[in-house]
């Protein structure tokens, strides 16, 4: 449990999915903005310079307008003389706008974002379950390597004892030197196996450290564990539980729901949109917003706008179809995943049954091997068995112990894999 908890906290692959969940939540919060008003501020300024020279116009020489040559009609502009003028203009506006109706597109977009957040949470749960399985398997393999090391040490100890006994018999002339050399060869081989077992144990512990996220100089205490048994007699019950609990299946279901809401959000473009806005605009004759001449100083405007697009080149139609096809493709992925998981469940149950049967046979073989070695050793001491008989008995015992180790930890691996398939994260 300590290794599992540490791996969940330290593994970068889990942190990666945690940040993806955070990103999905921010996207959900962004979708909420469609229900809130918008407020904009805008300032603009410009400066225009006009240069030119204009002669007298026809207006100045006109007679018949109240008898005055300088009289201009109403609305006419006097362009006489030189024009060399620079003017500055500025405007400042504040606009508050609110959408009243947009074909339920904002609501659908929010629902899609919420389903997407749920999907990312399930994806995170699936990754955590994968890490837990990795830790369990790495821990079990380290225990297996530790057991191999123990068996190798016992084998060396037995051969050292046999060598001493054989050497004693050699000294009194009961056996030949050839018998002593035969035991020595077996002892050298056992010592090589011990060195290999020590190296494999170190490698297994290092792999466990990497999976858990423990610094390499840190020591790891390995305690024997036995995972909780799972009743596999009712396959349909386990299958139902798996299809309901697996995070990957829930992820796809949430993803399908999100795509359905996205499709409905795209369909909202077929509806009109209605919005209201209130704006205040101030005009200035210079960059500092001061008004020098007589004229409009500010303007307040309330506006209601209804807009309905009738044709946009089938873009909305194509968007709806694209989302629909993505949803159908995801549904096919879900079906494929469910079929694959059902097969994994069946195979995992079969593997567990086979491993348990092998363990029963191996346990019986160890008992028989120990008894056989005891009888052979007593016979060897009494001169009723040869060195070869004792070496064979030791070999059979060591082999049966290794087979028991393999069978026991194969059962543990099978249980761990079955727990992962059923989404059982407890020990």
Task: Write a structural description.
The chain is an alpha+beta fold and 427 residues long. The chain has helices at 2-10, 12-32, 105-171, 177-212, 235-245, 247-267, 315-381, 387-421; strands spanning 38-54, 81-101, 273-284, 298-307. It has one domain (2-51, 88-421): Outer membrane efflux proteins (OEP) (Up-down Bundle). It contains eight helices and four strands, in the order ααββααααββαα. Strands 1-2-3-4 form a four-stranded antiparallel beta sheet, with no helix packed on it. The longest helix is centred in the first third of the chain and has 67 residues, at 105-171.
What does the secondary structure layout of this molecule look like, with pairings?
Blueprint: H1 2-10, H2 12-32, E1 38-54, E2 81-101, H3 105-171, H4 177-212, H5 235-245, H6 247-267, E3 273-284, E4 298-307, H7 315-381, H8 387-421
Antiparallel strand pairs: 1-2, 2-3, 3-4
Helix pairs in contact: 1-3, 2-3, 3-4, 3-6, 3-8, 5-7, 6-7, 7-8
CATH class: Mainly Alpha
Helix/sheet category: alpha+beta
CATH topology (fold) name = Outer membrane efflux proteins (OEP)
Radius of gyration: 43 Å
- Estimate the strand proportion: 5-15%
Helical percent range? Answer: 55-70%
General form:
elongated
Alpha-carbon distance between the two ends: 7 Å
């Amino acid at each position: 449990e300590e290794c599992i908890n540490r791996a969940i906290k330290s593994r970068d692959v889990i942190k990666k999915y945690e940040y993806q969940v955070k990103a999905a939540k921010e996207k959900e919060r962004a979708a909420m903005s469609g229900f809130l008003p918008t407020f904009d501020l805008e300032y603009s300024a410009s400066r225009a310079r006009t240069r030119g020279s204009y002669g007298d116009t026809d207006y100045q020489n006109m007679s018949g307008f109240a008898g005055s040559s300088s009289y201009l009609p109403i609305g006419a502009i006097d362009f006489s003389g030189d024009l060399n003028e620079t003017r500055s203009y500025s405007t400042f506006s504040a606009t508050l706008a609110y959408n009243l109706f947009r074909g339920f597109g904002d609501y659908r977009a929010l629902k899609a974002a919420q389903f997407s957040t749920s999907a990312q949470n399930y994806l995170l749960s699936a990754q955590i379950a994968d890490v837990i399985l990795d830790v369990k398997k790495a821990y079990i393999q380290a225990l297996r390597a530790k057991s191999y090391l123990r068996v190798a040490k016992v084998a060396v100890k037995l051969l050292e004892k046999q060598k001493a006994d054989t050497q004693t018999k050699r000294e009194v002339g009961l056996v030949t030197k050839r018998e002593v050399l035969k035991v020595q060869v077996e002892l050298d081989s056992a010592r090589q196996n011990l060195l290999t077992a020590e190296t494999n144990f170190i490698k297994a512990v290092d792999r466990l450290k990497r999976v858990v996220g423990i610094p390499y100089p840190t020591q790891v205490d390995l305690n024997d564990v036995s995972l909780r048994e799972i009743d596999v007699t009712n396959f349909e019950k386990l299958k139902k539980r798996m299809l309901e609990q697996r995070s990957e299946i829930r992820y796809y279901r949430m993803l399908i729901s999100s795509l359905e809401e996205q499709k409905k959000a795209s369909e909202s473009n077929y509806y009109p949109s209605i919005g209201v806005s209130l704006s205040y605009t101030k005009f200035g004759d210079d960059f500092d917003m001061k008004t020098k001449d007589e004229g409009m100083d500010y303007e307040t405007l309330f506006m209601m706008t209804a807009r309905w697009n009738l044709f946009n080149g089938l873009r909305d139609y194509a968007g709806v179809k694209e989302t629909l096809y993505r949803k159908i493709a995801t549904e096919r992925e879900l079906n494929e995943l469910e079929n694959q998981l059902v097969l994994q469940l069946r195979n995992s149950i079969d593997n567990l049954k086979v491993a348990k049967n092998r363990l029963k046979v191996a346990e019986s073989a160890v008992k028989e091997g120990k008894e056989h070695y005891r009888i052979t050793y007593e016979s060897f001491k009494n001169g009723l068995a040869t060195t070869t008989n004792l070496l064979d008995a030791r070999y059979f015992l060591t082999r049966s112990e290794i087979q028991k180790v393999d069978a026991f930890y194969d059962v543990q691996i099978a249980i761990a894999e079955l727990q992962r398939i059923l989404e059982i994260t407890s020990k």
